[in-house]
Amino acid sequence: MDKISLSGLLDWWREGLYACLPPRLRRRLDPLATPLVLEIEGREARFFQQLEDGRRELGHFSVDELQADPRLLAAVRQGGKSLVLRIPRNWLLLKKVHFPLAVRENLPRVIGFEMDRLTPFTIDQVLYDYRTEAVKQATGELAVELAVLPRKRLHEWLQALAGAGLRPAIIDAAGLWRKANLLSPAERPRASRAQSALNIGLAAAVTLLILAALLIPLWQKRTIAVDLNDRMHRVKQQAQVVLAIREKLDRNSELLAAVPEKRAERQPVVEVLREVTELFPDHTWVQQLELRENRLEIRGMSNQATALIRLLEDSPVFKQVGFRSPVLQSGNQERFHLAAQIGAARVEETAEETPGETMAPITASPRPAQDSAPPPAAGRPQASVQAEAARRQIRSGA
To answer: Is residue 218 assigned to a domain?
Structure first.
């Protein structure tokens, strides 16, 4: 896509403002609004004024008659209008050329340097103009339409106009693009002082209007923002009081809600004690049992202390079971100190826990080694026998 240049943007903006003016004011401000046109047809020309809704014929003469009587173009001086010299299209050399995209910024100079390569003429022998047709980003090329007119084709007409003290403001041809002008920028007449002053005044007025259009909404928004800021400050003070009360209520609600949650997280002590009693075999003695929060520590003696780890891990009540200290051999038994975390699971039979209940350390005197549990009755499950033996053992120790 072709980028919009600053000059193109200013031209578009100026034309938009110009179209909003009344027709009479437009004709006064712009000499090219209703220009005087000298349309050349060989050695003869038609002289007319271009109007918005047509044209007004002013005469028809040849170049020889114009050289003999320069007063034929007196209307140009009287009306202060710009003169447009319109040549036949077949006088032009029209050509489409391509340039690298990198020369886009210096395209007029590049065309001047390449004129003798693009045409049979040098830059001093021609009048020319160009326009950019397309920008091909994929190939990195710039497509340009070039219109070239040899100066010798207009030599007599330019001499006749110079004899009348006139210089054309525009040289174009029928069918060329809008705003085409074969005159080089250096050969175009400069705007009069009055017109320049008027343009500067209009530009200043437009600048002030633009600034006003930008600043007035900002001032209005600032006024609204200050008013809203004051209101927000008052509402914020009231909201802070309400938030303080609400935070206090939330804290109290959280404390109240935490009580049943804490109770639900802990296993009842009776359930823990019953599970340990049922799991430990008869040859195991518990000397000390401590239960703090959800952590259980047991010290005691057993014939196979390492087997206790697997028994506790298989239970849904305990997890993270491990020894706190190395197992020591004491006679025929092993002295152990193990710990476990109380899990969330509960045994099938639950018991009510007294609020604030903690398990005090339980100590038991070791019974003689010759004591042993009676053999299980026939047909009775071994686990039940071991659980009853453990309970008898703890009772006797207590």
So the answer is: no
